[in-house]
Amino acid sequence: MPLPRGGAYNAGTMATDTVEQLHAEALRGLAEAADARALDAWRIEILGRKGRLTSVLRGLAELSIDERRSVGAAANALKAELEAAFDERAEELRRASFAATLASDRIDVTLPARPHRRGGLHPVTQMTERILDAFRSMGFSVVEGPEVELDYYNFEALRIPADHPARDMWDTLWVDETVDGRRPLLLRTHTSPAQIRTMEQQQPPIRVAVPGKAYRFEATDTTHEWQMTQIEVLAVDEGLSMAHLKGTLLELMRRLFGRERQVRLQCSYFPFVEPGAEVAVDCFVCSGAGCHTCHQTGWIEMMGAGMVHPEIIESMGFDSARYTGFAAGMGVERLAMQAFGVDDIRYFYQNDLRLLQQF
Amino acid sequence: MRLSLKWLSEYVDLRVTPEELAAKLTHAGLAVDAIVRTGDWGPEIRVGRVSAVDPHPNADRLRLATVEISAEETHRVVCGAPNIAAGQKIAFAVVGARVRDGHSGKDAVLKPAVIRGVESAGMVLSEYELRLSEDHEGILVLPESAPLGAPLSDVIGDVIFELSVTPNRADWLSVLGIAREVAALTGAEVREPPVDYGEAGAPIKGRVTVDIDAPDLCRRYVATLIEGITIGPSPAWMQERLVALGQRPINNVVDITNYVMLELGQPLHAFDYDEVAAGHIIVRRAREGERFTTLDNEERALAPDMLVIADERGAVALAGVIGGLESEVTERTVNVLLEAANFAGAGIRRTSAALRARSEASARFEKGLPPELAMIASKRATRLFVGLCGGKAATGAVDVFPGKKRDARVEVPRERIARVLGIDPPVSKVRSVLGSLGFSARWVPPDRYVVRVPYWRPDVRIGDDIAEEVARIIGYDEIPAALLAGSIPAPIAQPRRELRERARRMLADAGMREVIAYSTTTLEALRRVMPAEDLAIYPPYRLVNPISAEHAYLRPTLRASILQTLASNLRYQKGEVAIFEAARVFLRPDDRPADAGRPFGEERQPDERERIIAAVTGRRADRWGRPGEESVDFFDAKAYAGALFHGLNVDVTFAPVDEYGFTPGRTAAICAGEARLGVIGQVHPDVAGAFDIAQDVYVFEVALEALLPLAGGDRKLAPVPRFPAVEQDLALIVDEDTPAGTLQEAIESSSLVRSAQVFDVYRGDQVPEGKKSVAFAVAYQSPDHTLTDDEVAKAQRKILERLRREFSAEQRGA
């Protein structure tokens, strides 16, 4: 549509653009505005309250109704067009300026992060919690017992009376306290006293996992430490068999070392269980083929276990014909060594932060 | 226990490889720890005979040996061994054999050589080159019986198992006992060694008498008499077997007693019959104050609970433990009184432990031997005496057997086996398994077995023992894995443990590193961190037999340990170190009376208390994580402690306190209301110095038991304020010793104040001497309307009035 001419009637005051003229000049000016300041100046000159477009719109009042209609429509269209063009140009300039900033102000993303103190739990604590989590998920409660234990709980009640040869299986650190010429106190050599203490307190069904420190009078080397952390598990109920023992330990091993793990039970002897078992897991390094980790056997010895001796069930006041139970005792450090690739058990209590900080 | 497969094969055919056999035994409960091959040599090493020894033409110390391997094959080699002699049977290696090289110590293939101008193709071997021992002084001389030309492996090769025998299986401390196990596991038959002998001598009756005065300690005593023996070395085959099992050959008499002990598991003792007064053996308890010289020439003081073998003059042996010097068999002995007795295990164990005289014999007795074995071993040894020592056995034996019992029978329902094992093996299987082990199981319809237990298995007493026998022979692998079913027991609350574990995680999350130290310490370390009076009044628990002096006392405090741990790390850690330990301390309980209904000594058990100890030291990190200019201070430690208490939702206050081992003016009690939860502060530089720490260390310690009643409450949500807060700064001039915390508490007690936060503490210009300026950002806010300026001004006036009144505080710049 050809734009009507105007302006002749405005002579004498400020020269008023024709719509057509304004259209061309404004767009040219906008394209020439190269930065935010120029853009702002353009906005004031063209779109401002006293700007040229406003003048055109004001000038409409002086036109005839017909003219007003046609010129007015064109002027309003121009207004919309210029405002849109302004927004577009503004966005264009903003992007260009951001791009320029980025080009000149890149950060080196490989620089180190701002230091933030990282703490952490001891690997033995971490492994303890992983094991306990597995047992909790199987309905076991976590309980604890004393570290300075009585001969009664550590040995006698577990069918290891004084002068029993099985005492040699646990070299004992004795506490220098005497009562009537006898020494009743020792550092517990295992967490198995928890079996007795738990059955004193609880009625079947029982499912407990008992973590804690244990101590042995033992020379230390890469696989032996005189202070250790053990977890004892005990379940007593009607109808528990070695199959449940095996299933429970299989579940534990799978949670710790992968779903494809297998466990193997072999006969062993502990006075407080019958039958007794040594429990091994198939080597998760070589999956049974034989490697350094499993000493070429394909299996890694993990713990002792067995069915709670019926005489112990009876001595705790339960009917051994009705209730059976299983127990297992595992060394947390041994499991942590396997899981974390630690080749010297003594690292755990040396507390060298250069080692601990890796966890 | 060491086991020679060669010896074993005398009693049972070995149908599987040593490795398979080891796996089967281990599975059945007899753990094979190691398999050692002695003599795993190739066919190039054979038995030869030295037919001639001639001088070496060019060397005085070398000789030329002619070795015959067969009628067609002879070799002439250079040999340097001083003991080589014509006629000897020796081990000979031809070129191509693998032997240990004398120089490198490694195996090498033997090559032809020219030694001092003489060609030498082959070698007469020493024990060293055969890897039998480290001895390369002379060549190995084989027994004359070694067949010429036979591969050496067939002649002296053996496989030795190193076994871990569990304390319930005394029968496994014998080659025959293991043979029985092997037979059961491989379906073979056991060949028992012969025990019969000709009784060519006069009757024993009247010449040997035995009285058992202590039938509770001696269940059986069998004596035989062998007269006219000649003391000398035992035959080579016997010596070889003894050596293979780790026993040193001594003479034929002693060797036979050791041999039968290893073969059958029954310890024996040979007395010089002529040194036993009137041939009268008395088995009795030692007398009060009795002294006795054992054959290791040590005079020992005996106690009345020890059992001795005596004649009418006095003790001649310490029963089951060690013999006496005077009645010992010597080179002059011609008549032997052989003892095969059964002593109570506990008594033997007590005696051997008390006298520190543990022996192969005591190790077997203490595990509990069957009395039936005494007679069998007596016959077996007497047979060997007759055969190997040239003696005549007296007719008859003296057999005093006060402890005779009926054969053991165990009744076990089929259902019990299934209940315990989780599998229900068929009757025929159970019977055949038990039969293979020497049990006889009778099926009593409809539901049970009656099992007769062989004499050598006194460990089997109850039905579950039978179940184990069945399972270990069938194989534990047959037992399926089943998941636990049934109702899940109600969880048992352990608030102390749960709190400790939460605390651990919070400190770790806050940036601290957990350590776990030994539960033990030294008095010296404790003296640095505890007042001498406390140590005197509540002495720490001492161990009787600590691993070392460093571990002699149980920790009554964790403070020494954490400083030791810190000190050992500071050599490597230059930046901030923040560590903690959560562990028990062992405290003396209040005096408690013994409770007759409770286990012995319970009243003396320590109070085990849970403590958390934390230590912070070193320089804070700069932007790059390197140790920066500033060292950590009290407030870093307070931040870690704060994270703990915030995490546990416990409001605590810090009040200045003096604490042993801490720096005055830099130490606070951590309190919650009236309860003191712990302490925080700078370790006194002298104390740090005593642990070889030269930098400032800040420590906090929390008693978990004090925290327990306060912790664990859930947070209650406070609504987000609907009306805006007005923030104003308030700087106060107060006395130097006015704690900021007290001022804050006072400001926050105004109902219109939501919070007051310290943002500056200033001393210097415009602040008088002895005063300080503490600036608070105070946020005024009302839950139900927007505060007007007037309200805020009025509230601030009231606050200032109170601060002026209570703390002589003035508003700075007012």
Please report the number of helical segments of chain A.
Answer: 12
Shape of chain B: elongated
Strand order of the largest sheet of chain A: 1-4-5-9-8-7-6
Biggest interface goes to: A-B, 99 and 98 residues
In the sheet with the most strands of chain B, the strands line up as: 29-32-33-39-38-37-36
The termini of chain B sit apart by 93 Å
- Gross morphology of chain A is rod-shaped
SS elements, strand count of chain A: 9
Structural notes for this entry:
- The complex is a heterodimer of chains A (359) and B (814).
- With 359 residues, chain A is α+β, with helices and mostly antiparallel strands.
- Chain A folds into 2 domains: 8-104; 123-356, BirA Bifunctional Protein, domain 2, CATH 3.30.930.
- Chain A is built from 12 helices and 9 strands.
- Chain A has helices at 19-32, 36-47, 52-59, 65-104, 123-137, 151-154, 193-201, 242-257, 310-315, 332-340, 347-350, 353-356; strands at 141-142, 148-150, 185-187, 206-215, 227-238, 263-268, 273-282, 299-308, 323-331.
- In chain A, the strands form 2 sheets. Chain A has a 7-stranded mixed β-sheet, with helices on both faces. In chain A, strands 2-3 form a two-stranded antiparallel ribbon.
- The longest helix of chain A is centred in the N-terminal third of the chain and has 40 residues, at 65-104.
- The two termini of chain A are 78 Å apart.
- Mean pLDDT of chain A is 89; it is low at 1-15.
- Chain B has 6 domains: 2-39 and 160-186, Phenylalanyl-tRNA Synthetase, Chain B, domain 1; 45-156, Nucleic acid-binding proteins (OB fold (Dihydrolipoamide Acetyltransferase, E2P), Beta Barrel); 209-400, 3-Layer(bba) Sandwich (Phenylalanyl-tRNA Synthetase, Chain B, domain 3); 410-450 and 461-477, Phenylalanyl-tRNA Synthetase, Chain B, domain 1, CATH 3.30.56.10; 495-592 and 604-707, BirA Bifunctional Protein, domain 2, CATH 3.30.930.10; 726-811, Alpha-Beta Plaits, CATH 3.30.70.380.
- In chain B, 26% of the residues lie in helices and 29% in strands.
- Chain B has a 7-stranded mixed β-sheet, with helices on both faces. In chain B, strands 3, 4, 5, 6, 11 and 12 form a 6-stranded antiparallel β-sheet that branches. Chain B has a 5-stranded mixed β-sheet with strand order 14-17-20-21-22.
- At the A-B interface, helix 5, strand 1, helix 6, strand 4 and strand 5 of A face helix 7, helix 10, helix 12, helix 13 and strand 29 of B.
